[in-house]
Please model this.
Amino acid sequence: MLAVERLKEVLHYDQLTGLFTRLITVAHNAKAGMVCGAMDCNGYIIIKIDGKKYYGHRLAFLYMTGEWPKHLVNHKPPGMKSDNRWENIREATYTQNAYNRGPDRDNKLGVKGITQTPCGHYRVHIHHEGELVPIGTFTTLKGAITARATAAKILHGEFARMA
Model:
């Protein structure tokens, strides 16, 4: 696994911009002074060091703390996967990262944790500590969204995903 010393030999991380620049030339298209990294198909920045690919947000964590994260590195706000500024990333457990996920792709309403009943009402639930917690049923989508957001703030804290 890449050591922080090796990382700092080959790259410089600017915590204000979230960008990595090369300190040494490794190829004709990877010269010293160049910003490095490319976006993968999921929107994350990938950086190659010594022939191995690493996620930029994980490298930023290593660069700033001197240690690899124990679990995951999560972006805040959610959905900003390529924004690797230090203020925008945090360590997260697998559970906290799941709290921070958006709605599933097949979600018809586009709102996490809300489904429509056959009679047109909106049923709200939230996952917490491995359990599905029912919040209630609401006549309006706006009321359901407000209830879901309130429950997320209470149960998930800083990892709450509102949409």
Residues 112 and 127 are 10 Å apart (CA to CA). The helical segments are 4-10, 56-65, 94-99, 141-156. Residues 141-156 form the longest helix (16 residues). The chain has a mean pLDDT of 92.
